[in-house]
Design a protein that fits this description.
12 strands; five-stranded parallel sheet; alpha/beta; four-stranded antiparallel sheet; about 230 residues; about 40% helix
Length: about 230
C-alpha cells in the first residue's frame, strides 16, 4: 500500500480527496497548512506528496523546497487554482513531478498518481543514496562518521564525528550552497526547534566550522533571517 501525504487547506476538497484515495487503496495523511505538512513529512515515510500551492503558514512551493532539502526522493504533485504559465514553471523549478489545475476529476488525479508511482518504482530500483560526500578538499564518509581532508592525492587529516555532527553535516552536504533555516535543521536533526536544542545546535555549528577551516574555500555561514549555508 502506497502512502500519500496530502496538504490541502480547503476542508471540503481535502476530505474528498483523502476519502477517494483511501477507497482506492492508498494510506493518506492530510495536513491543513504547510507547517503541519512539513511536520508530518519529517516524522513519516511517504511514497508521494500532493501539495496545494496556496496554503496558510507555508505555501506549497516553500513546502516543496524544504521537502527537497531532506534529500528524500519523493514525487510531488501540486494542486492549484492558478493556471498561469509562470506558476507552472515555478512549480517544476522547485521539484514538482506534476501539476494539476483545479477543478479536476478524481479519476484524472488517480491516473497521474499511478503513472508517477510506476515511474519512480522503476527509477529507484537501482538508486542508492550517496554515502560519501565531497566538500571542497574534504571527504565526508557518513556511515562511518569520518571527515577527511585530502591534498595532492594524500589524506592530510581525519576527524571522527559524533552522531549529531554527522547528521547536521549530511544535511548541509545534501544542500551545498543552499540556505537552510534554523527551524528546519533543528526539526530534521533534533526532532523539534526548542530553545535548548537551538543552543545545542549552535555549539555543533561552531565545531563543524572548526573542522572545515583548513580549506578556505569551504565556509559555513550565517544567512541573515534564514539560517545557515554551506558554501564551497
Amino acid at each position: 500500500m502506497a502512502t500519500i501525504l496530502l496538504a490541502e487547506d480547503d476542508p471540503n476538497l481535502g476530505q474528498l480527496v483523502q476519502e477517494y484515495l483511501t477507497l482506492r487503496g492508498f494510506q493518506t495523511d492530510r495536513a491543513t497548512d504547510g507547517n503541519m505538512a512539513l511536520e508530518l513529512f519529517t516524522r513519516g515515510q511517504y511514497d508521494l506528496c500532493i501539495f496545494d500551492v496556496m496554503m496558510p503558514k507555508k505555501d506549497g512551493f516553500s513546502l516543496a523546497r524544504e521537502v527537497r532539502m531532506t534529500g528524500r526522493d519523493v514525487p510531488i504533485i501540486f494542486l492549484t487554482a492558478k493556471s498561469m504559465k509562470e506558476d507552472t514553471i515555478q512549480g517544476f523549478k522547485v521539484g514538482a513531478d506534476d501539476y494539476v489545475t483545479k477543478p479536476f476529476s478524481m479519476e484524472e488525479l488517480l491516473l497521474r498518481i499511478q503513472a508517477i508511482l510506476r515511474r519512480y518504482q522503476r527509477g529507484s530500483a537501482d538508486a542508492l543514496e550517496p554515502t560519501v560526500y565531497t566538500i571542497g578538499s574534504f571527504s565526508f564518509d557518513y556511515p562511518h562518521q569520518v571527515l577527511s581532508r585530502h591534498a595532492d592525492g594524500q589524506e592530510q587529516s581525519s576527524q571522527k564525528l559524533t552522531s549529531k555532527e554527522s547528521e547536521l553535516l549530511k544535511l548541509f552536504a545534501q544542500n551545498l550552497n543552499q540556505p537552510i533555516s534554523r527551524s528546519f535543521a533543528l526539526k530534521m536533526v533534533w526532532g523539534d526547534d526548542s530553545y535548548f536544542n537551538a543552543r545545542s545546535m549552535d555549539v555543533y555549528i561552531t565545531k563543524l566550522r572548526k573542522y572545515l577551516r583548513d580549506d578556505e574555500r569551504v565556509q559555513l555561514v550565517n544567512v541573515h533571517g534564514e539560517g545557515f549555508k554551506l558554501i564551497v
